[in-house]
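It would be a great kindness if you could assist me with a short task in structural biology. Thank you for your consideration; the sequence and its tokens are set out here.
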Amino acid sequence: MQQASTATAVALGRKPKAAKQPALKASQVTTLVLNGTTVPGLARDTSYKLSVAGFHTVDLPATVLADAPSQGYYGTTVYYDAVQAQAKQAAAELKTAFGAHTTIAALPPELSGYAQEAGNPLTVVVVGSSFNGELNNPQAHIAPPPVHTAAAVRNEPSLTSYSLEQVRSKVPFRILVPTEVEQSSRLSSLDGVRAFKPVPYRHELVMSFVTGAGNVYWQVIETDWTDAPILRHPTAFERIAGRTYRLYTTGGNIHMIVLRQGATSYWVVNTLRDELSNETMIAIAKGLQPLAKAH
């Protein structure tokens, strides 16, 4: 969510809010590694690699084996001591280091004795059989701060206005024209503007655009199906130029912007791989204006 809100703020020309919790240094992350498999020495080897990566690893007394109560773990679990400040944050950073098939959970009673024997570290890692023995560099997963760029759009309401006029009678709601479109785009030659019923008693108008790159599509969708499943979980609400938009982001990319007006919602939908920049998506959404009445 922090990545998404930062990217949106930059796209809107605002100063991003600072993260509530700065990242911990690896040396601040204390951890005990236990073997949750039957692979000999896996806890020892993993602990060594974590220490080489800069994490503060701790050990059990020489008389205590670093084996979890069960050797049937498939995924790796990073447990955090819920009573210690920053423990959950430390677990999140370790999860990144272990990569796929890694989960975070509060330290369970059956592992608390191991933690006490090792001096109560912030975390206890139980390594599962899916771990390939190689750690990820957490810093490599930190996205560089986004940079504001100009929206790649051109003003051309006539691109769609004629086609929209032809389908005006097929939808019961007010049609908005995308006056701003991605600068290299044209209407798709195959059903560029289409009106239909997505479900019984609901209407939808779809404008499909193809970029100059060819075979790369984005859409503007207008519909009175305001409870469509895709609309259930917006990642943010933004007030822009007197309108409130729902944003649906993937990582730092805006995949969809939705404007709700009465019983109608208007969607700007990015390409499959989110090739339109956040600034471009916002400019297209801001450019949605009512279709002029026919003379």
User: Anything to note?
Assistant: Residues 153 and 183 are 4 Å apart (CA to CA). The chain has a mean pLDDT of 91. Residues 153-290 form one domain.
